[in-house]
Design a protein that fits this description.
The complex is a heterodimer of chains A (about 600) and B (about 350). Chain A is of the alpha/beta class and about 600 residues long. Chain A contains 20 helices and 23 strands. With about 350 residues, chain B is an alpha+beta fold. A five-stranded mixed beta sheet of chain B has the order 2-1-5-3-4. The chains are: A alpha/beta (about 600), B alpha+beta (about 350).
């Protein structure tokens, strides 16, 4: 699409020639352009394209909610209907960001309501969502259709009740891995009897009980329901009843799956499942009796996505039996109890596999059940693999070199060795060469996370070869400022850089201050940057917010520029310093 | 838009700077265009331009390239004319080559060198060991060298670990905040799910089973509430019915978190807390005089200071507990008279200082 734009803009050099195309025609053409990046490109061709594109864009993506004010977004995109917002830095997922840091959605909802935006879809990630926000949201937008909350917090089931009760057009309520305070109220009953438009309902992350009868009736009156993910409180027999009602489900998240395989209910479930010929995605099994799993074998051959990463109860033989039926799998999320042998089964069965995530089942014992062998097996059996997240016990350069050869198509490569500074398990060398092979071979690599014993060398390779890299996560790696300098200098497409516990200091931070305006954000914690370095940076770059977080409350800190900064988060912004920062966050 | 032209300038040169013997380079080489192949480094008999030139160059080039590095400018003009100085420091190659040497004996299947590099490979052992000899068969990127000089200790024999001393400081101990990088919802999975097959409990509905695992119970037996501590990623649970007073609760909190706290401090401060210091941390949890203060969340969702109401009333209202740093408590302005005077002063000083910064 971008090349089309450049062609057209080249051909029609003078702006007045644009008038040959009425606005409506251009708008119609732009309708076919849906991705945010492409539309951003369109808007930069010339002024009239900017104007037309901005006035017609309905779907907006804001990668950092503090980069711009809601008023400015509304002003630029008057046709706004669907917005995605991200709040906290990624490391907040791992408790590295203090609890009250920010990322409140309320000001956005309030601004949209005040300006009568015709909001229909809201997608939030890592934001603080209060019950008040949900209440306001539910009352302010008559056509509101879709709410997706990922890794958010701050709300309770009361807020969900407001959404259920007031959003009469709601089609989608998707709660993924949120921290929700469950008041065990009857939020599900708040859906009106006349509410029949539900297409997607995911409440797997809720911890409390729900009224099962209400759930069954809701499902029964939702003929368009295609995606349903249940929480732990939904038992086996309810699942059976629901599946009888919804044979057209495409995405199913099983809640509690504990029952007696010899019972009548089990037989009924088998029958119900056999009717669900449309199911392509399966997840859940939060509580599971493994020998009831064969009931699902009939739909396994159709599955393209399987998520068993919350099901530590499925192990060993039962797990591999299940996987052997899943020949069409494209996405697989599992726990490391599958073991290297289990991964070999995956490699021989799932030839279409594109995305694999292997999570640690017992992270604090520090003993993952998979090693480099599993990864090599997968890479040789699954040539279409492009995304991997792999928590393992150990890794070797040889394995990484092999993986790089087998799978040159990686877009996302995230490796996490549970002991973060562990060297090559065989040679005791740093893992520089292995990761070097990965970035060299995978020309399209966009996201990379590294662990293991790593020196500045690996960053040299990254800077040299990872041309498409957009996001890089570094922990306990590198030897000197040079490491970070190689990356900042070499990775021209870098947007997000997050670093923890690595010896990078002011020399690296200040090497190319202009770079940060071309990036979304930089996170550095437990590194060598000092307060003085951060102040210098902030002074040079007024359009960056440089936030320092010091939870140790050392008041001497303020006066000592040589003091090392515990946590620094900087991001480009057009909105200036934010006004909702808590006491422990200082914007320089 | 973002200096795209610079990217295209930089890329072709950078491709070829790593020596071709790198095993993982082999595949890429075959895919390149013929023009690129002309430009690329090749190992061969003397007579090749760069190998002669390389012997002549040494320190000058290195210094120049180092200064280029410090300017942060990677891409340069003609690759033939620069960067290939005498490889006195062979560490960059040696890491990978050492590994290759050690694994040659194993003859692992992934090692597949094209035949033309075989001769050069045989000379590698020489290079690795006799690093002072200038070598015409190995080309090393100067940028690497300057990095390697600082990164690596003097050349080590093939199989010993080459561990830069600076990395030892960063050895991650058992309990590091935010490690491993997984979401809270994925922690404690194995312990929190009732994963055992239930064969003879068909009468027991799964609902009841789930209910017994919930953190808050209204029945009188075994009332477990969650207790978290600031800075410690893993929480604990306490059974409030096992105690009958606040003092006992305070002791329990101390026991639960002392170990974790010591481990945290060990990893961050690199020291070991003396017993006195440990005790000090948890003394005064209830009266605000110590480093930490105990607060709880009641049935209305409000955060309250522990100790105001009679014990039995507390037990009926508490939903979860939290151990906060006392200084943070004062910042929350609970307005309790138990706040030490010094914490208010601290807060005032910090606010004043914060104003200076703006």
């Amino acid at each position: 699409m971008v090349s089309l734009c450049s062609f057209i803009s080249y051909y029609w050099e003078e702006e007045k020639r644009m008038n040959y195309f009425p606005d409506e025609v251009l708008e119609h053409v732009f309708d076919f352009v849906t991705s945010s990046r492409d539309r951003n490109a369109l808007s930069q061709v010339c002024k009239s394209w900017y104007r037309i594109e901005s006035s017609s864009r309905q779907k907006v993506f804001i990668g950092n909610c503090y980069a711009i004010s809601p008023e400015r977004v509304i002003e630029r995109f008057p046709a706004l209907k669907s917005i995605a917002l991200k709040g906290k830095p990624h490391f907040a997922d791992f408790n590295l960001v203090p609890h009250e840091w920010g990322g409140f959605v309320y000001p956005w909802i309030e601004a949209f309501a005040r300006n009568r935006v015709g909001l229909e879809e809201l997608r939030l990630k890592r934001m603080v969502v209060s019950d008040d926000s949900l209440e306001l949201l539910s009352r302010s937008f008559a056509n509101f259709k879709s709410l997706v909350l990922v890794s958010c917090e701050g709300f309770t089931t009361d807020g969900l009740a407001a959404i259920a009760a007031n959003c009469r057009c709601l089609r989608e309520l998707d709660l993924q891995e949120n921290e929700v305070e469950d008041h065990r109220g009857h939020w599900l009953s708040c859906f009106h009897d006349s509410h029949t438009s539900l297409v997607s309902l995911n409440f797997a992350c809720l911890k409390g009980d729900i009224n099962l009868g209400v759930l069954e009736r809701l499902v029964a009156r939702s003929p368009n329901l295609r995606s349903l993910r249940l929480n732990r409180a939904v038992p086996f027999d309810t699942l059976q009843k629901i599946l009888m009602q919804s044979p057209n489900l495409v995405d199913l998240g099983v809640g509690s799956y504990v029952h007696d395989p010899d019972s009548e209910t089990y037989d009924k479930l088998v029958t119900a499942i056999e009717k669900c010929k449309s199911v392509r995605s399966l997840s859940g099994f939060l509580d599971v009796a493994p020998h009831c799993l064969p009931a699902f074998h009939s739909i396994c051959p159709n599955l393209t996505s399987l998520n068993l990463s919350y099901a530590p109860g499925i192990q060993g033989g039962e797990l591999t039996k299940l996987i052997r039926h899943c020949r069409k799998l494209q996405r697989l999320w599992i726990l490391d109890c599958i073991g290297d042998k289990g991964l070999e089964v995956v490699a021989s069965t799932c030839k279409d596999l594109q995305e694999l995530r292997v999570f640690p089942s017992d992270p604090y014992i520090g003993h993952a059940a998979v090693t480099e062998e599993g990864l090599v097996a997968i890479s040789s059996g699954c040539p279409k693999l492009h995304s991997i997240l792999y928590f393992c016990q150990q890794m070797t350069n040889a394995a990484l070199i092999t993986v790089a050869k087998n799978c040159p198509n990686f877009i996302r490569f995230r490796l996490c060795i549970l002991d973060p500074t562990k060297p090559d398990a065989v040679t005791q060398q740093p893992l520089d060469e292995g990761f070097g092979a990965i970035v060299h071979s995978c020309r399209g690599l966009r996201r990379l996370s590294l662990t293991g014993l790593l020196t500045d060398q690996v960053f040299l390779y990254i800077g040299m070869y990872a041309e498409q890299l957009e996001m890089l996560s570094i922990a306990f790696a590198g030897d000197s400022d040079k490491g970070m300098q190689y990356v900042l200098n070499g990775c021209k497409r870098l947007r997000k850089l997050e670093i923890r516990d690595s010896p990078f200091g002011n020399g690296a931070l200040l090497m190319d201050v202009g770079k940060y305006e071309a990036m979304r954000s930089l996170w550095m914690s437990s590194c060598e940057v000092t307060l003085g370095g951060c102040k210098t940076l902030a002074k040079k770059m007024p359009r960056l917010n440089v936030e320092i977080m010091n939870e140790n409350e050392q008041t001497d800190f303020i006066f000592d520029d040589a003091q090392k900064v515990d946590k620094m988060y900087l991001y480009r912004t057009l909105a200036g310093q934010r006004k909702d920062a808590p006491d422990f966050v200082w914007t320089l | 838009m973002e200096g795209c032209s610079k990217i295209t300038e930089a890329c072709p040169q950078l491709l070829d700077l790593i020596p071709r013997e790198r095993e993982w380079l082999v595949k890429r080489a075959d895919e390149r265009s013929s023009e690129e192949k002309k430009l690329e480094l090749r190992l061969g008999p003397p007579g090749e331009e760069w190998s002669l030139r390389e012997n002549a160059k040494n320190a000058d080039d290195r210094e120049r390239d180092e200064s280029l590095l410090s300017l942060g400018y990677f891409s340069n003009g003609n690759q033939h004319t620069r960067k290939f100085s005498s490889p006195e420091n062979l560490q960059p190659g040696s890491v990978w080559f050492n590994q290759q040497l050690s694994q040659q004996a194993k003859a692992t299947p992934f090692l597949q060198f094209p035949s033309k590099t075989v001769t050069t490979r045989q000379s590698l052992p020489v290079m690795a060991k006799e690093s002072s000899q200038p070598c015409c068969t190995k080309v090393v990127v100067d940028l690497q060298q300057s990095a390697e000089k600082k990164a690596f200790s003097p050349p080590a024999p093939a199989n010993t670990a080459v561990v830069p001393s600076s990395s030892q400081k960063r050895t991650a101990p058992g309990s590091v905040v935010g490690w491993p990088p997984i979401r809270s919802s994925r922690k404690n999975l194995a312990s929190s799910s009732s994963s055992k097959p239930v064969t003879d409990s068909q009468n027991e509905s799964p609902n009841k089973k789930v209910a017994s695992e919930k953190p808050v119970e209204t029945c009188k037996k075994g009332m477990f509430v969650k207790i978290n501590m600031d800075g410690v990623p893993i929480g604990r649970k306490v059974d409030l019915t096992a105690y009958d007073s606040y003092e006992k609760l305070s002791t329990v909190v101390d026991e639960l978190f002392r170990g974790l706290l010591t481990a945290q401090r060990d990893s961050s401060a690199g020291g070991i807390m003396s017993e006195q210091e440990e005790e000090k941390a948890f003394m005064g949890v209830l009266d605000g005089s110590g480093e930490y203060t105990l607060v709880y969340e009641d049935n209305e969702g409000d955060r309250m200071l522990v100790g105001d109401v009679p014990w039995h009333m507390f037990v009926s209202m508490v939903k979860r507990l939290r151990v906060l740093k006392s200084s943070e408590v004062s910042a929350l302005s609970l307005g309790s008279s138990k706040q030490g005077k010094e914490s208010t002063d601290e807060m005032r000083r910090k606010n004043f200082a914060a104003k200076i910064l703006f």
